[in-house]
Structure formats: structure tokens, C-alpha cells
Amino acid sequence: MEIQRRLCAALIGFALLLSPGIASAKRAKTVTQAPVLVGSLQLFASELAAQAHCPRDQVVWLNTNSGIYHEKGMRWYGNTKAGAYVCRREADAAGDRDTRNGQ
Q1: What angle separates helix 20-27 from helix 2-18, to the nearest 10 degrees?
Q2: Domain regions of the chain by residue span
Q3: Number of other residues whose CB lies within 10 A of the CB of residue 50
Q4: Does the predicted TM-score (pTM) go above 0.85?
Q5: CB 76 within 8 A of CB 37
Q6: Is the pLDDT of residue 13 over 60?
Q7: What share of the chain is helix, strand, coil (3-state, %, to 5)?
Q8: Is the pLDDT of residue 65 over 60?
Q9: Main-chain dihedrals φ then ψ at residue 91, nearest 5 degrees
Q10: Secondary structure class of 94 (helix, strand, coil)
Q11: Are 85 and 49 in contact (CB under 8 A)?
Q12: Digit-coded pLDDT (tens) for 18-61
């Protein structure tokens, strides 16, 4: 009886992991493909789109939950749960700031 219960729980867990809705939710970013305007700050889903918008400025990854941005080569560049590529000058003007710990 205990073995059947564990086997049933394992199968349900495995089925949930393979569910397309759950799998796509884990990979979803909070930014759509089209640029999003938030106040005076334009958010981009790709680095190339942001660079096309501001060719003479540095593109950074903005954590939209914290308002902290990360430069290319840093640990969290493009890797936070909620974020977007933005132009550094626009992020500064919007009140966002650079990371203080170099990550």
C-alpha cells in the first residue's frame, strides 16, 4: 500500500513537470517582444533592440523589481526573473541605479 502511494505521488509529480503550461511559465520573461514604455524608460526584450534604440549608449539589464541594473559580463546580466534591456542613460534618468556589488 505504501509503495503504491509513493508511486502514485511520483507519477503525478512527473506529469506536472512535463505539463506544457508549467514548463512555459518557468521560462517566461516579464517583457514582451515589442518595446514597452514605462514612464520615460523604454524596456526591450532583446539586447539588439535596445542597442538599435540607443546606439551611442551602453545597454544594461534592468531588474524591474528592484530598479537595479547590471552591465554586460556581470552575473545577473539578462538573468533576473523580472527584467529588460534598457539604455543606461535612460535608466539613470528614470531613477534606477547600477549594482553596488559588481554582480
Answers
A1: 60
A2: 1-29, 31-103
A3: 25
A4: no
A5: no
A6: no
A7: 35, 20, 40
A8: yes
A9: -65, -45
A10: coil
A11: yes
A12: 445 444 444 444 545 667 777 779 999 999 999 999 999 999 99
